[in-house]
Amino acid sequence: MKCVICKKILKKYIDVKNLENFKKFKLLKCQNCEHTQTYFSKNTDLQKYYNVKYYGTNKQKFTFFFEKISIATRFFRIKKLLFKKNKKILDIGFGRGIELSILQKKNQTYGVEINDKNFKKLNKIGIKTYLFKNFIKEKFNLSFDYIMMWHNLEHQKHISTVLKKCHKIVKKNGYLIIEVPNSNSFQSKIDRKNWIYWDVPRHNHHFSSQSITKLLKQNGFSIKKIKTFSLEYGGFGMLSSLLNFFFNNKNLLFKQIQSNNVKKFNKFKLSIFLIFSFALSPFALIIELVASYIFKSGSVLNVVAKKI
Length: 308
Ligand SMILES: [Zn+2]
What we know:
There is one protein chain. By secondary structure, the protein is of the alpha/beta class. It has one domain (10-77, 143-307): 3-Layer(aba) Sandwich (Rossmann fold). The protein contains eleven helices and eleven strands. Helix 6 links the parallel strand 7 and strand 8. The radius of gyration is 19 Å and the shape is globular. The two termini are 31 Å apart. The protein has helices at residues 52-55, 64-77, 98-103, 119-124, 132-135, 159-169, 186-191, 209-218, 234-246, 252-257, 267-293, and strands spanning 10-17, 24-30, 36-38, 88-92, 108-113, 128-131, 144-150, 170-181, 205-206, 221-227, 300-307. The structure holds zinc ion (ZN). Zinc ion (ZN) is lined by residues 3, 5-6, 8, 30, 32-33, 35. Zinc ion (ZN) binds next to loops.
């Protein structure tokens, strides 16, 4: 198999298990640009991995206040866009539409998703929605000031096709804001095959800062800024990696706070586990801040790119 970005031969990297059915997937890594790809056998049914366990029930992904924290951090990730007015903003892979619902008050907002289950609710408040399968073909009789892709590009098979389409529909001097997990992050290095954001086989591509830069340049964008700290992913990912040192059952915190998990601890065991996790969290956050701001190897690659 060849690297989709620089066409060099990929080498075997590590085997990573899916967290729900423990099926193993091979990761292959490019020796040149450090881009990593998940290897699929022909009979892998990807659709079955996008189930209710993944999306959550009652439109909620996590239990109790973890859901509230997750929503609150979304304000931070769009903080640069909060004061924009009368802009045309497209969100590819909007999920529950949290960011679009915030931005729609002062702007014209549009969203793309693979299924239509949140469309009605968002259409009611004036957000225009499109199905992903129609997105590549869709003419769009307008061009966008900003296109955002929050943790979506790593799920795509044909990453260049998606970026070419973005290039076509973004205004001249318009911006593309992409965030993906950083496969070269400090947490991925210390946690190796157990790193929570490999998320195989849903994540098809695992980007390094070198590989995403190369890919965006190939598709007509110039890089304005790359940040690696994420309030939502950084501390949590680092905490998960630290907890993996102590427990044999890997990524236990994530499994315990998922709204659909049936294999939950009893209340006593859960309280002890959460207290232990909270005690570790300041250390996790400090390590993540140092990794992100000093070594530029935080949990994500948050890229602002401009159409050239
Ligand atoms: Zn490569």
